[in-house]
Each structure stands twice: as C-alpha cells, then as structure tokens.
Amino acid sequence: MRVPKLSVFSTLRQSLLAQSKSNSIKSIRALSTIPLKSKNLCPQQTFVTQKTQFRLHHCSGNMLPPRIPFSEDFFFRQLFDTESSTYTYLLADLNTHEAIIIDPVLEQARRDAQLIKDLGFTLKYAVNTHMHADHITGSGWLKQLLPGCKSVISAASGAKADIKIHEGDKVEFGRHAIESLATPGHTNGCMTYVIPEQGCVFTGDTLLIRGCGRTDFQEGNSKNLYDNVHSKIFTLPENYRIYPAHDYKGQLESSVFEEKRYNPRLTKSLEEFVKIMDNLNLPYPKKIDKSLPANKECGVYDIPKEQ
Q1: Per DSSP, which regions of 248-292 are E strands?
Q2: Cα separation, 229 vs 234, whole angstroms
Q3: Alpha-carbon dihedral 282, 249, 107, 165, rounded to 10 degrees
Q4: End-to-end CA distance of the chain
Q5: What is the Cα Rg of the chain in Å?
Q6: What is the three-class DSSP state of 100?
Q7: Which segments within the chain are labelled E, that is strand?
Q8: For the chain, does the N or the C end have fewer beta carbons within 10 angstroms?
Q9: If we measure between CA atoms, which residue out of 185, 194, 207 comes closest to residue 167?
C-alpha cells in the first residue's frame, strides 16, 4: 500500500475545497427558506437576494462552529486503556466492512479483536501515530489474532512495520482514507491523521486536549512541535474534531477551534512555549525502557503466551 508521496497538503486542499463548495451549496438552499426578518439572525448577518443566492457573514469569531456530521457509511468507535490513559480508535466502512485501528495497546488487543469480530469487520491496518514510550503497541498481537492485518507507521519513526508512510500518503479502508501529516516534535516520527469528509483529526501525542506531548526525550524538539501544530493542525478548519492519543482528565475530544484559543501552552509565543516545555520537570516515563525496544519491533515480542 505504498503510494507515491504527494505534495504537502495537496489531497487535503482538494478535499477541503470540495467540502467548502458542498457546504456553500447546502447553506444557499437552507437560506432560501429563511424570511428576511428572521428573529434567528444576529445583527452581523446580512444577505441580499439575487436569483435566490445569498451571502451570510459570521456572527462572531468566538462562537463554536457547527460540527461536521459523520457520513452514514462511516463507523467510529473510541476505546480506552486505563493503565496508560491511551485512546484507541476503530474506524470502518459500513458497506465494505473494512476497518483500521489507530494506536492499539498490547493489553487490549484481545478486547479490540473481539469487538472487530463481533461487528463483522475485517481489520485491514493497525496504524500508530508514533513509536510510543508509555505502552507497547497492540499491532503485533492484532496481526496474529486477525490474520491479514498489516501494521503501519511513519518511515521517520525508526520502527518496523509492514508499511511505512510519509506525509501525503493515504491509508485506505473501503471508500474512506486517513491522510497523513508529518508533525514531529514529540518524536521524529509523529504523524497526524486527517479525514476531511468526517471532520476528524487524530493527533497522537503531538496535540493533546489543552496540552501537548513532552519534548524532553526520544528526539523531542519543542520548536518543531510548536511549528507543526501551528502550520499544519491549526490551519485546518476550526470545526474539525481533535482526537488525541491520550487524556488524563476524562476528556474525550476537542476541536481545532478550542485548541487554537484555549490550549494553555500552544496559545503562547514560541519563546514562551519553549520555556514552558523546558521547565516541566516531568518524571522519567515508567514503561519507556520496555516499550521502546518492543515498539521498534512493531510489538511482536512480549505478546502474552496464553493465546
């Protein structure tokens, strides 16, 4: 499944332009039924009739934009590992039943495999956003539990996998696909995955809910993380949902809109951000000495023997 490397954001630009055009057409049709003096309009909203075409201005830059609804043939499930506070995401095409899983955890591989079987899906790819330091990936065990599944990770990660991807590559399942943005900073191999049609962004450890991944080990670089978040993630449409690899406070999701305004680290200047990251004084990751060697091998050892 190695696809030719695309120019940066080329597929995203095309998807967003098509989506924007579609949304504009829907808005025009909806507005044609609104009376001129509707009480629902705020003072900043104006539109002029000319062959039933309207122009609508935004009410306020501080209003949360409407979410993009999932298409009827798209399946989404968010799963959780309590020990590492890791989110795993199961995505599928409901017509073809092809599925992918993002950031699986070794100890939850049996759970995930059973869910996939129960739902009648075929797991096509086990995808990692980066080479994790706080848990062992479930990719290796899922390949054994669900034969035919292939592992996927960034070529810059330094880890083994069946398929190594670069920015601009797509990972396809049925008619759907996640599109890859290279967002190093937490690690060299960090990838952010985007599904424009569904308005979803899977940010791994690069961008967390009101936070970000640490940059004090494993090729961490605060400036790179800051630059990649601002130039690649924060330039996506503001109503895109953000799904991170971890959360430690029980939050399930965020949005580009929210993180651009309320992330306590990434709303600072670059200089302030670097200073914050240099002074976190976080403890040494508990599982890093076990997780990194295993994840370099795609988690193919330390798999429980009771299969």
Answers
A1: 254-255
A2: 6
A3: -70
A4: 29
A5: 21
A6: strand
A7: 74-81, 86-93, 98-102, 122-127, 150-154, 163-165, 170-173, 176-182, 191-195, 200-204, 207-208, 211-212, 241-244, 254-255
A8: C
A9: 194
Question: Which helix (H) or strand (E) element contains residue 296?
Answer: helix 288-296
CB environment 243-272: b (16+ within 10 A), e (fewer): bbbbbeeeeeebbbbbbbeebebbeeeeee
277: which 2 tokens? 């990251």
Is residue 86 within 8 Å of residue 245, measured between CB atoms? Answer: yes
Torsions phi, psi for 236 (to 5 deg)? -75, 160
pLDDT at 295: 85
Phi-psi region of 281 (alpha: psi -120 to 50; beta: other; left: phi over 0): left
Q: Minimal CA–CA distance to 38: which of 196, 262, 30, 111?
A: 30
Reading phi first (left if > 0) and then psi (alpha if -120 to 50, else beta), residue 168 is in left
Show the tokens assigned to 297. 């091998």
For residue 132, name the pLDDT band (cuts at 50, 70, 90).
confident
CB atoms closer than 10 angstroms to residue 298: 22
Token couple for 121: 């899906």
Alpha-carbon span 186 to 173, nearest angstrom: 28
Is 77 buried (19+), middle (13-18) or exposed (0-12) by CB count in 10 A? middle
Q: What is the pLDDT of residue 56?
A: 33
CA distance 268 to 273: 6
Give the tens place of pLDDT for each residue, 38-54.
333 333 333 333 333 32
Q: Which residues pair with 201 in a beta bridge?
A: 194, 242
